[in-house]
Structures are given as C-alpha cells and as structure tokens.
Write a structure and sequence with these properties.
By secondary structure, this protein is mainly alpha-helical. The protein is built from five helices and no strands. It has one domain: lambda repressor-like DNA-binding domains (434 Repressor (Amino-terminal Domain), Orthogonal Bundle), CATH 1.10.260.40. Helix 2 crosses helix 3 and helix 2 crosses helix 4.
Length: 88
Amino acid sequence: MPANPPDLRALGVEVARLRRARGWSIERLAEAAGISRKAVIQIEAGRVAARITTLHAVAHALAVPIGELVGVVCHEHPGRLHEPAPMD
C-alpha cells in the first residue's frame, strides 16, 4: 500500500510555532539555519518539500531533534513511525 503524502502544511505550522516560541523573526531563523528568507517562508506555508539537509539545518537552528520537527508530516500513523514496513 502506498504511503499517504506528507502533510507539508503541518510541518510549516510546526516550524512557525517553534520559531515564534523563540521570539524569532523569519529573517532570524533563516540566518541561524543558513537558508534564505524565501525558503523559510515557503516551508512555513507548506509550499515546498524541503530537502533533508534544509530541514536538518532548521531543526538545528531551533534546537529540536529533526524527528520531532518532521514527525508532524506523518500525523495519520504516529504509531508506525518506528515499526518496520511489512515485507511483500
């Protein structure tokens, strides 16, 4: 069975929530993560499937484990995050 598409909007909401909790502007997060302001805006809007390297940089800048940051994209099956996929 194919996986459901990732919920990029939920990821964006989580990035924005964490950024605001630190009192950071979009510009401050972009600078801390070493990415462009436009990239932060697109991620927070759920308009892009960011590369793992970009998400790693964002997670590092926000001081959260990357798994915590991106775990929200799989909200429909949280219990399966650590279970191996069945073999056919």
